[in-house]
TrEMBL record:
Species of the source: Dokdonia sinensis
SUPFAM superfamilies cross-referenced by the UniProt entry: Acid phosphatase/Vanadium-dependent haloperoxidase
Pfam families hit by this protein: PAP2
Keywords in alphabetical order: Membrane, Transmembrane, Transmembrane helix
PANTHER family documented for this protein: AT30094P, SPHINGOSINE-1-PHOSPHATE PHOSPHOHYDROLASE
Name the record gives this protein: Phosphatase PAP2 family protein
One Gene Ontology term of the molecular function aspect: sphingosine-1-phosphate phosphatase activity
Membrane-spanning ranges: 27-50, 57-77, 106-127, 134-153, 159-177
Domain Phosphatidic acid phosphatase type 2/haloperoxidase, first and last residues per copy: 61-174
Length: 186
């Protein structure tokens, strides 16, 4: 069963990766680099200071960073336990795919996917009562995860599991810490 799922994952990756267009490569390389999203992070944190008083805004920032750190730690532990090679490091795929980046660590599950969904989900949970439009922030992780396929470094399964794990961690931290620290007692 796992081999069948892996085969489907590889086939879907090869198909999706082949949809990349040379003229758009620089866009996907730009999108996939975390530092280019710094203005969005600053917007997230600024909105906390619009919605909450200073102390609670700092708590919201801290909980967002906690969500990021926990998700990243779980990702790195899982990658080292599972040890799945990235598509760009898989010899039988070398002639079939477009490779725009060449990281050499493991693939399962996607840290970009997990962390971007974790942070976005936490921010949405914290701000949704004040800003109904906050769900638009999910454009960020969707672009981010697509970039990982187009640059040749993640299978769709890596991305899907990463998104689920990130969303789960954000919801757990929100449920057990966030909503109590930010919305109870004034």
């Amino acid at each position: 069963m796992w081999e069948q799922l892996n085969r489907w994952d590889r086939e879907l990756f090869v198909f999706l990766n082949s949809l990349g267009i040379d003229d758009h490569d620089s866009f996907w390389i730009f999108v996939t680099q975390i530092e280019h999203w710094t203005p969005l992070y600053l917007l997230f944190f600024s909105l906390f200071f619009v919605v909450f008083k200073w102390q609670k805004a700092l708590i919201a920032v801290g909980l967002t960073l906690l969500t990021f750190a926990v998700t990243l730690a779980a990702t790195n532990i899982t990658k080292n336990i599972v040890g799945r090679l990235r598509p760009n490091n898989t010899p039988e795929l070398a002639d079939l795919i477009r490779i725009l980046q060449t990281p050499d660590n493991f693939s399962f599950f996607s840290g970009h996917s997990a962390v971007s969904f974790a942070v976005t989900t936490f921010v949405v949970l914290a701000l949704r009562q004040r800003f109904k439009w906050v769900y638009i922030f999910y454009i960020w992780p969707l672009l981010f995860i697509l970039s990982r396929i187009f640059v040749g470094v993640h299978y769709p399964g890596d991305i899907l599991v990463g998104a689920l794990v990130g969303t789960l961690f954000a919801n757990l931290i929100w449920r057990f810490l966030g909503k109590h620290l930010l919305f109870e007692n004034g």
